[in-house]
Amino acid sequence: VVFVARDRLSIFGEDNIEAAPDLVCEILSPSTRRQDLITKRALYARIGVREYWLIDPEELSVTVLVLEGRAYTELAFEAPGVIASRVLPGLRLRLDEVFEDIDLVPAELLSQE
User: Fold this and answer.
1) pLDDT per residue over 42-61, tens digit each?
2) Regarding beta strands 51-56 and 23-27, do their DSSP bridges make them parallel or antiparallel, or are they unpaired?
3) Which residues does 107 contact at the CB level (< 8 Å), separation at least 6?
């Protein structure tokens, strides 16, 4: 999931986004975990994605990373169990609500398919 601020909508080309979105949310899965945590994190920092959320349904966690200079810093929870965005100042989510309707399938069962 990506977010682009209204004043930057011009970055949408005919077939792609021609500049860094303001916010990217990645949902981690066993098959892409390493790529999301290492490769994409470095790429997004290099191209200037201001905020990068890592959503981990296995751990029931969300890590919010904000770009400071050329590297990401983890943003502390606003309150216990409440995540907030710097890019979208009014956005506050409770972790229990984020994962409320999730049906977890153990990773070992996914690898058998």
Assistant:
1) 999 999 999 999 999 888 88
2) parallel
3) 30, 58
